[in-house]
Structures are given as C-alpha cells and as structure tokens.
Backbone:
C-alpha cells in the first residue's frame, strides 16, 4: 500500500506540524463551545450527511445480524436519554452499563452521555462482588442490564440505597414488577426525534472507567467530553480509518479499548463498526471478518496468540482479502506475533500502547512508518512523551537506556482524576510529568521498546530484567503458546527468573521438553534473564481484558496474599 493513501503520510512532518488546535478546527470546535461525545458519534454524523450510512453492524452467537444507520443511532440514543430523564436520572449521575455486547450497550453508552450523566461500563461477566465494589465506589444511580444478569444485581441491591433504577432491556413480560426494576425495550421504544442534549463543555465528566486490575485493585479513571478530540484524531491517524472502511474492534466496552476505540473514536470519524456478541473461536472470528468484509481490525495480543495457537489451517478456510490494516493493544506484542501475521495475512499487526488513564493512544505504529517487530512504535504527535529515570523520576534522553514512560499532561483524553482517590491520582505526577508505570527504552530511530511494568520487573542480583524479553524468547519455541516470567525468591540473588509456560495443542509437558526449551532460549537471552525453572501450566491467570496477571503467579512463589482478583478471567 502506498503512503499517499494513508491519513498520515509522514510521521515526521505530522509530528512537527501537529497542534491540538488544528484538530479542534478540523472538527469545527472552539474552546468554550458545546462538546458532547453522544452528539459527535450520532447527530453530528447526520449533519455531515451520513444519516443513512450504516453505523453499526451487530451479530449475535447464532449469526443473527442487526444493522443501525447513523440516523437510527441518533434517534435511539435520544430515546434512551429521554427515558433515563423521565425516570429521574440527572446530569452527573453515574449510570452503569452491565450487558453483553448487545446493541443496547453501545447505544445506551451514548444515550447516557447525551443526558450529561456519566457512563460506567462494566463487564457483564463480573460476579456480584466485583460489581458491588465498583457500584459502591461510584455510588451509581442506575444500571442498564439484561434479564440474565439481574439475579447478580438483586443479591446486592439491599446494600445500595443510592442505586435507584435497574433497567432491563430484554424483559418481555410487561407485568413484570420487582423492586427498583424497570423495562426498556430498544426495538419497541418510542423513537425520539429530538432531544435537548445536555449543554456539556470540554471538562464535563463523561466516562468512568475502571482499570484492568492487572497490578492491584482497579482504579476508577474519570474522563471528560473533551477526550473525543484525542480519540478522533488517534483513530484517524493510527488506525487509518477512511469513509468506506468496515472496522472491528474486538474489545468489550468493559475495558477502555472497547469505548475509546470501540465506540467513540470510530463513530466520531463516521465509520461503520462491527460488533460480534459471541465467544471466541478462531473460526468464528475469521467467519465474521469474511462475512462483513472487515477492512480494519483492532485486537489484542492474547487473542492474536490464541489465533496463532489455532494454526493456519483455519485461516485457509476463509477469505480474509478484505483486511487492509491490523492493530493491537493491551499487552506487549511479541515480535513473533507480528511476523506471524505478516506471513498469514500478508500484513503486520501494528502495536499501540496506552492506558485507561491516558484515554487514547500514546505510542503507536503508524501505517506510513516502518514496523520494527517487537517495538511499540513512536509517540503520537501532539503528545510530549519521554522516559524518566527509574529512581529519580527525572527526564533523560539517552538511547537504549531503560526508564519509565512519562507524558507531559495536557492531551485532551487524559483522565481528570481517580474517582474517590485523588491521593493516588496525585502520586502519578512528578516533576511535571504523568508517570505511566511502564518501563521502556528508546532506540536510535526513536522507536519505543517495552520492557515491563514497574511491578513486574525482576531484580536478579541487582540487575533488572523485564519479563517481555524472556516471554518473547519462549514464544519463539514451536511448542510454546503463552508464557509469563516472574521473579521467585532466591537467597543468593534476591530473585531469580521463573517461567510459566502454556503449551500449544499437541505438545505434552515433560522434563525433556523443559530442557529443550531451556536450551532453545539460552541462545537468545543473557545469563541473568535465563529462567532457573520452567513450570508447565494449562493456562495463565488473566484479566478480562486479556492481560497476564504476573502478580498472581508471583504471590504464590513468595507465599504472599494474592490481593484483589476481581478482574480475574479464568480459574487457574
Ligand atoms: P491496573 O492499572 O489496574 O493494574 P492495567 O494497567 O492493566 O490495570 P489498563 O489501563 O487496561 O489497566 O492497561 C494499561 C497497561 O497495559 C499499560 O500500562 C501497560 O502496562 C499495558 N499495555 C497496554 N498496551 C501495551 C503495549 N502495546 N505494550 C506493552 N504494554 C501494554
Ligand atoms: Mg494500570
């Protein structure tokens, strides 16, 4: 593909010339103006002539498909906003979305924002306890949910005086009446042609997103409507969306990727999005891409590794020729995965790095830029990103030296606080920088190379080793599907490396295989990074957003309390 076809044609030129003001002008926004994410994703598209364009192509696990145009989105989000208002929900109230990936989740999110309330999306797979912690932290006023999830709410309802409305979107029995429960049906609701959108401005709170809980208790990152400026332009430049694209972000909106790039960014660009409300199998996913002729696919390393594990035969059964751009988020993307996608899809996955707190991409690979497999790419134009010293937290500029990724505050999508936790928020800033808590180095060409999270770095005999290089080396072995490297206590060296390995189908754990793997990685790693032990496991503990929870494995090695595991996806 030629560079002139991309939205960003030269990274260097864009970086040099970029201003947030120019993005504001492109969107027709001036400081102090009305700005509402609900409006940007729906009404604004209709004003721009996209009323009849498909906005959402939704498919369930039976293969049933529903389509919504931007005008449907406009009217139905009005209906939801109007309904919430009629109940008594007010601007600033927290409204939780607790649903599978049904259309009501996507439209509900925007309806809440149109009303000026704060959207609080949570994974529908959460149990009562995980749900309660987050509702109680936010003192949530209303929850929009499906019938099948209501029992989990009922068990905690008595402990939540603040929760006034449990709105069920698929209750078919109109006589149904239970404490605080209300019925709202998107298919039969009154279509509200016009709704007075809340007069929100840049700093009006929009979304309350809980972090993935990979390193500890999840924190509620609070965002504002102005974030759409970042989400719009990063989607345009990093994901390269164009008017005719069919875009699929695989993330659940319970995770920030599913809102910033599964709702806001693409719809602020007026792009057709697909949603698959069904469990993962490689065959399902490829069929979905084939059926809807998806052109841009934004996914996560865990999913990519699962596809690699499945092998190429499944891909060959499908026509993947519609794809033109692939991107990844959430965890370090191993070089092996990038090379694999190049081989099987004829294009590389482009890694992007960002956090719930940053609200939008921070470092990414751009379509106009050469991909160095294993690198996260370069900072987004308009964002001042750099490294600070691990101990002093002072910025430095030496190539190849590991530091903590830091950003100068001021980009539009930055979180404005942690809900109820200003103290932790304040601790994230030092010497005028926001500290991400992730370690990386920068090479001669300005590319960022991820090393590990602060908490995951292994200190062996005074040397700091990042789990990423060890896990990447392990992944190159043909029998390894996934791995996690953690520090285990050692009387001599303080910590030594222990690797947990999940094998691909057809490989069985054995002493022989362990030795073979050890020999294989010995050639790739420094002696300090070499695991002293490999333990074979069926699967690795992961968050619902697919992140490996190394702290869970580490706590076991150290005989410590495991801590908050409310986001744990699988039983180990
Ligand atoms: P918690 O803050 O609750 O521990 P979390 O940090 O996993 O959870 P998220 O905000 O969902 O919650 O994830 C952001 C983190 O994910 C980053 O700080 C980084 O550690 C990791 N991450 C995201 N993208 C990448 C990437 N491309 N490469 C490496 N790490 C990534
Ligand atoms: Mg985090």
Residues:
């Amino acid at each position: 593909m030629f560079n002139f076809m991309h939205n960003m044609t030269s990274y260097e030129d864009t970086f040099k010339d970029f201003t947030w003001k120019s993005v504001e002008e492109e969107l027709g926004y001036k400081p102090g103006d009305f700005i509402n994410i609900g409006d940007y994703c729906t009404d604004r598209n209709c004003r721009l002539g996209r009323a009849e364009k498909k906005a959402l192509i939704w498919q369930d696990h039976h293969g049933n498909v529903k389509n919504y145009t931007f005008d449907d989105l406009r009217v139905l989000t009005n209906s939801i906003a109007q309904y919430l208002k009629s109940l008594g929900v007010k601007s600033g109230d927290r409204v939780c979305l607790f649903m599978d990936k049904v259309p009501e989740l996507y439209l509900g999110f925007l309806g809440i924002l149109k009303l000026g309330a704060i959207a609080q999306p949570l994974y529908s797979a959460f149990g009562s306890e995980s749900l309660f912690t987050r509702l109680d932290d936010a003192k949530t006023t209303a929850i929009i949910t499906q019938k099948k999830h209501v029992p989990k709410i009922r068990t905690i309802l008595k402990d939540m005086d603040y929760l006034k409305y449990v709105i069920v979107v698929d209750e078919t029995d109109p006589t149904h009446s239970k404490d605080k429960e209300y019925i709202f049906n998107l298919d039969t609701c009154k279509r509200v042609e016009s709704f007075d959108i809340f007069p929100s401005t840049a700093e009006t709170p929009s979304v309350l997103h809980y972090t993935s809980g990979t390193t500890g208790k999840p924190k509620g990152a609070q965002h504002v409507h102005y974030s759409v400026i970042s989400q719009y332009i990063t989607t345009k430049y990093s994901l390269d969306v164009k008017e005719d694209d069919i875009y699929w972000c695989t993330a659940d909106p319970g995770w920030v990727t599913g809102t910033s790039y599964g709702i806001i960014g693409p719809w602020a660009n007026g792009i057709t999005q697909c949603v698959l409300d069904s469990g993962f199998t490689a065959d399902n996913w490829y069929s979905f891409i084939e059926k809807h002729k998806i052109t841009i696919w934004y996914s996560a390393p865990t999913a990519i590794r699962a596809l690699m594990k499945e092998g190429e035969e499944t891909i060959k059964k499908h026509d993947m020729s519609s794809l033109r751009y692939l991107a990844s988020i959430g965890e370090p993307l191993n070089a092996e995965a990038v090379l694999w996608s190049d081989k099987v899809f004829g294009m590389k996955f482009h890694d992007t790095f960002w956090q719930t707190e940053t609200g939008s991409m921070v470092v990414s690979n751009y379509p106009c830029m050469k991909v160095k497999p294993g690198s996260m790419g370069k900072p987004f134009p308009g964002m001042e990103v750099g490294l600070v010293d691990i101990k002093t937290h002072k910025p430095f500029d030496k190539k190849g030296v590991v530091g903590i990724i830091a950003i100068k505050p001021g980009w539009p999508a930055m979180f404005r606080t942690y809900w109820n936790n200003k103290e932790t928020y304040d601790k994230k800033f030092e010497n005028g920088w926001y500290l991400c808590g992730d370690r990386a180095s920068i090479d001669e060409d300005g590319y960022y190379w991820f090393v590990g999270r602060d908490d995951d770095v292994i200190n062996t005999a005074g040397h700091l080793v990042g789990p990423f290089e060890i896990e990447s080396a392990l992944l190159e072995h043909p029998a390894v599907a996934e791995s996690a490297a953690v520090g285990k206590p050692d009387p001599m060296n303080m910590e030594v490396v222990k690797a947990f390995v999940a094998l691909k189908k057809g490989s069985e754990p054995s002493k022989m295989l362990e030795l073979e793997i050890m020999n294989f990685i010995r050639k790739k790693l420094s002696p300090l990074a070499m695991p002293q032990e490999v333990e074979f496991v069926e699967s690795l503990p992961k968050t619902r957003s697919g992140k490996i929870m190394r702290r869970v494995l580490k706590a076991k090695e150290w005989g410590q309390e495991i801590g908050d595991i409310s986001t744990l996806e699988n039983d180990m």
